[in-house]
Inverse folding.
């Protein structure tokens, strides 16, 4: 008895040491490498702290402008005016859209004899139409709108910047800095002096815990162009890239308040580093001790020969694997969490964690030892797989009746057999019954039974085939036997199956597109809609200032317009896909149309880093097309090149005539990784930018392809690595 308890104690000791050791090794492998550093000032944590402080200096000191100066510096380009003006189409299109929005409202108000409401709608409609009309009449009117939007964004920027000022004060309390712009010589510092000769009096080793010199062996020049921490306002906040390099010193002061967050991190580092090394080294020693003890007592042999293995071997394989996976997963959760000692406040907590971790890891090790020979023998003993719970369940499913009706018929057959067998009882009481029963059994009973079974089997095949057909699967044709109702049903199902096969691929694609459309629509529409709802709720606050109310209304207006663009594109894509659109075809010079499309983007192209190479025939190339619709295609493809091309690359656009065909190609290098399935790019709401960071609706290529299809042409996409090529083929007319 004493020996048995001794072995158990040794086994528990081995398990605890092994668990603790594994946890320690994972700590050394997975923990932040900062604890390997000899000083806190060499850690990534401190480097990030200095970088954050430098970014605050960038925002609040070096590149700071007053709100008024920033508003004064706002400019509005002709390109921005045109983009704002044509955001929702031509003037006629925008007026028609506004009128369509109010037709139903006005009619409904008039139908309800509410003329006052109808007049209000008419007044609101006319005001919007007048505003849109003025957009097309006056550049100054549009410029003022854009300027107000930009001024609003300036207010938003400074509002967000103010939230960081308290953090900046905390950092500025802990650090001293003296930085000089290498281009202008301008000095920025929080020292009492701006004289560079006196810097060492304030930022010196006897007054600082650590000093970073720029440039030095470990640091280059401080580049503030890379230090922005408030994103989305780059078009408003600009600085000269050539004047962004600084030299000087940043030092962490001695004697800073112990409550300062920077000093708290500094003081905690040594304590955490000591705990890390004590824990890690102790765990490694424990791991080697467990390996030594395990080898000494032959732990694997003891476990594999334990009598509980016989019980374990009786478990189905899939159940055993599932149990092993569960205990392994729980063990990994505890092991990876255990090194975070700073979450535990008492020694008891650590012991409880170690105990639970040891139990689950021990169960996992035992199960793995028991499971290994079973899995190893799997290729030779297929009977193991047939005894699994999964295999048994599938067998029951296969052997069960296919549906309730068939099951009912089988039950009736079994009842008939039972009754026929029950009828054999009287022959033991009155043997004379045998004279009538035996002939009836062989002449009537058995043939009827066989016939019913065959019919039930035939019906079962028909229902199975029909169910497969309804599920979009195709089994071999049913055999048509005789002229019975079942035979006719089998023949009809065969006929339907051949008809369904022709539309199966189209149906499957339609279902997939519908699912993806719902997903993508919800994604793209939810963002502006959420903003509209949020700011609408904020407007209900009666204590809002007039400026805040105007701000929220402006945001709602902008998000509403964005939502309308998405919805309009969706409607247009749907109309294109259904073919419910008429083309106004005329003889158009494709070369001239392309040049006009490129001219619309001339300023954007000049401002971008993309170099366009255009190849056109010297003579006009005519096609019978709807010029406005084809212009939409060119506009979309050129816009995609500018939006999605890798910076500092070339884009090629070429027109050539091959016999009776006009071939137009667009080629560029994509900045985003492209899918190998080019067909997906034609689908609605599909983008090359899969992260959906761009402002496009994802409908452009779908609309473009629909337009070309309506012209009985071809639009194809080729992807070769990052090379993206679109080819359009149209009929040439002389």
């Amino acid at each position: 008895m004493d020996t048995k308890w001794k072995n158990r104690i040794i086994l528990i000791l081995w398990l605890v040491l092994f668990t603790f050791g594994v946890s320690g090794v994972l700590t050394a492998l997975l923990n932040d490498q900062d604890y390997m550093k000899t000083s806190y000032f060499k850690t990534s944590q401190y480097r990030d702290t200095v970088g954050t402080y430098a970014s605050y200096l960038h925002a609040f000191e070096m590149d700071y402008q007053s709100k008024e100066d920033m508003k004064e510096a706002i400019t509005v380009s002709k390109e921005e005016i045109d983009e704002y003006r044509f955001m929702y189409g031509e003037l006629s299109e925008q007026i028609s859209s506004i009128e369509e929005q109010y037709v139903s409202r006005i009619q409904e108000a008039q139908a309800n004899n509410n003329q006052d409401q109808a007049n209000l709608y008419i007044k609101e409609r006319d005001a919007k139409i007048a505003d849109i009309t003025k957009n097309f009449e006056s550049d100054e009117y549009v410029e003022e709108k854009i300027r107000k939007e930009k001024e609003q964004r300036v207010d938003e920027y400074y509002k967000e910047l103010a939230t960081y000022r308290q953090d900046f004060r905390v950092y500025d309390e802990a650090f001293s800095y003296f930085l000089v712009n290498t281009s202008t010589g301008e000095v920025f510092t929080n020292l009492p002096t701006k004289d560079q000769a006196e810097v060492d009096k304030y930022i010196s080793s006897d007054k600082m815990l650590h000093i970073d010199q720029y440039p030095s062996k470990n640091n280059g020049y401080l580049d503030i162009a890379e230090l922005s921490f408030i994103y989305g306002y780059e078009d408003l906040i600009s600085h000269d890239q050539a004047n962004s390099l600084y030299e000087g010193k940043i030092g962490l002061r001695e004697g800073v308040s112990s409550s300062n967050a920077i000093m708290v991190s500094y003081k905690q580092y040594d304590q955490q580093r000591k705990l890390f090394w004590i824990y890690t080294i102790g765990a490694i020693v424990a791991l080697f001790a467990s390996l030594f003890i395990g080898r000494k007592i032959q732990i694997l042999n003891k476990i594999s020969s334990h009598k509980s293995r016989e019980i374990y071997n009786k478990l189905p394989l899939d159940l055993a694997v599932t149990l092993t996976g569960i205990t392994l997963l729980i063990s990994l959760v505890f092991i990876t969490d255990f090194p975070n000692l700073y979450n535990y406040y008492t020694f008891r907590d650590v012991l409880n964690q170690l105990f639970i971790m040891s139990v689950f890891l021990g169960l996992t090790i035992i199960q793995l030892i028991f499971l290994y020979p079973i899995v190893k023998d799997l290729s030779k003993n297929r009977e193991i797989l047939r005894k699994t719970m999964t295999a048994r369940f599938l067998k029951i499913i296969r052997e069960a009746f296919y549906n309730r009706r068939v099951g009912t018929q089988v039950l009736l057959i079994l009842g008939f057999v039972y009754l026929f067998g029950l009828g054999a009882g009287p022959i033991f009481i009155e043997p004379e019954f045998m004279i009538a029963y035996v002939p009836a059994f062989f002449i009537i009973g058995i043939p009827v039974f066989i016939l019913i079974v065959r019919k039930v089997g035939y019906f079962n095949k028909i229902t199975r085939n029909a169910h497969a057909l309804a599920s979009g699967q195709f089994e071999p044709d049913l055999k048509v036997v005789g002229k019975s109702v079942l035979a006719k049903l089998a023949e009809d199902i065969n006929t339907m199956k051949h008809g369904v096969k022709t539309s199966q691929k189209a149906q499957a694609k339609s279902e997939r597109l519908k699912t993806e459309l719902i997903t993508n629509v919800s994604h793209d529409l939810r963002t502006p809609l959420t903003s509209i709802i949020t700011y609408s709720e904020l407007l209900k606050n009666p204590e809002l200032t007039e400026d805040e109310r105007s701000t929220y209304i402006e945001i709602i207006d902008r998000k509403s317009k964005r939502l309308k663009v998405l919805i309009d594109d969706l409607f247009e894509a749907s109309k294109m896909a259904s073919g419910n659109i008429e083309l106004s075809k005329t003889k158009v010079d494709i070369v001239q149309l392309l040049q006009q499309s490129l001219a619309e983007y001339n300023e954007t192209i000049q401002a971008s880093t993309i170099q366009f190479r255009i190849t056109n025939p010297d003579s006009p190339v005519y096609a019978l097309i709807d010029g406005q619709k084809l212009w939409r295609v060119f506009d979309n493809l050129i816009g995609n090149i500018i939006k999605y091309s890798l910076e500092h690359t070339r884009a090629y656009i070429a027109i050539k005539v091959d016999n009776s065909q006009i071939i137009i190609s667009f080629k560029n290098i994509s900045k985003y990784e492209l899918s190998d399935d080019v067909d997906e790019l034609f689908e609605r709401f599909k983008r090359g930018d899969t992260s959906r960071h761009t402002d496009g609706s994802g409908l452009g290529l779908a609309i473009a392809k629909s337009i070309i299809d309506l012209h009985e042409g071809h639009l194809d996409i080729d992807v070769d690595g990052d090379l993206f090529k679109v080819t359009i083929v149209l009929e040439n007319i002389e």
Q: What stands out?
A: The first helix runs from residue 2 to 30. The first strand starts at residue 175 and ends at 181. The two ends are 107 Å apart (CA to CA). Residues 399-403, 684-694 have pLDDT under 50 and may be disordered.
